[in-house]
Amino acid sequence: MNRLIATTERFSFQSRELSEQLLKHVQNGRTGYWEHQFDRLADKEQVINWYLAIAKGQILYSGNRLLSVPSLMKILYRYTLHTRNELVGERFEQLKVTAEKEAWTPVQLLAKMKQIGIINDAQLIKALKMKVLNDLDTYVLMGSGKATFIPAPDLDLQLPIEGFSPIIVLDEAKQRQLQWEKLQQQVPSIHLIPVLNRAALTKANLPAGQQQRIENLVQSQQTLTAIAEDMAKDTLEIAEMFAKFVRVGLVSFQPPKKDTPAPIVVVDDSPIILSQFQHWVGALGYPVVACQESETALATIVEVDPAAIFIDINMPGISGFELVKQIRKQPQLATIPLVILTGEQKLSNRWRAQWSGCEFLTKPLDSGDMSNFQARLEELLIELVGTPESAANSQN
Fold this sequence. Notes:
Blueprint: E1 10-13, H1 18-26, E2 31-38, E3 50-55, E4 58-63, H2 69-79, H3 86-101, H4 106-115, H5 121-139, E5 145-151, H6 155-158, H7 166-183, E6 193-196, H8 198-203, H9 208-219, H10 224-230, H11 235-247, E7 251-254, E8 264-267, H12 271-283, E9 288-291, H13 294-304, E10 308-312, H14 320-328, E11 338-342, H15 347-355, E12 359-362, H16 370-384, H17 388-394
Parallel strand pairs: 8-9, 8-10, 10-11, 11-12
Antiparallel strand pairs: 1-5, 2-3, 2-5, 3-4, 6-7
């Protein structure tokens, strides 16, 4: 195992600053891990950190744990299709047992895999790079947080590859973000389940093989993430494929079934307002999901399928009214109540909210407004969603 040494080298990053900060800190020639902790994940029951391994200015590995035999095998299985072959899969599982029993290091595992023909250098590099890019898809947009460097001097010996240029990888990650943005109207979240429009599929008169392929992809009732994993494909590639199906009406999406009540979603760029809102609404007994990034709010909204959505008007990137338009374009969100939040008591904002089919709620401007705001908030929630108990019962 790598010998880890304590360090005090760290940096903080705000929303959308992570790529720039990584480029600045990854190329310092050190060998070890940057451990990232994200503010929006801090209240999770199980803490989720992201580790980016670097050696001599190159990126080697990405994951939610330090490099180990289990984490390496998971990446190889995820991104290498032939590991699903019955014979190769059997050897793969045997190696897993032997590696654990004999306490192999990652470099010992790779040597054995190459020796018996399970993996080659090209497949290893492809899998590792794809994992880095898929993780960047997620964590570059995760919001603010902090990163701490953990030296691991022998890391490059445990993963004997040249690594990936941070400049090239982060530029590719930026291009992927642009691709994701173009897909958002058709595929607002990768955690949705595709639903087949059989009438449209029949009418399309596709070749029998292509039609069967689409049916097979959809009938599994899996999310796009799970489909990508089963096919050992890049998640972006799968999303692009399903976006084409959506554009021609062959497929729509539905959220996974839940056993818990639908939450109340609040979208606001102010962490103070989000914290207060979570406290107020949570105290009334409703589950709450907070979104600080208006650009990624639609994906979260589609994924959680909320009971109601509260949206701030003035946000950087996408304004509140622009987000309302995006929400209304999603058929599965058409009936969800929307509430416009603002500290500006302008009659024009109230009119725009009404024209958009939204309720209107003015934020408290000082402590004297607080009790009135909380009372109106409770009235709105009961009016739009029902009491917490009735909302929970409606989900069962």
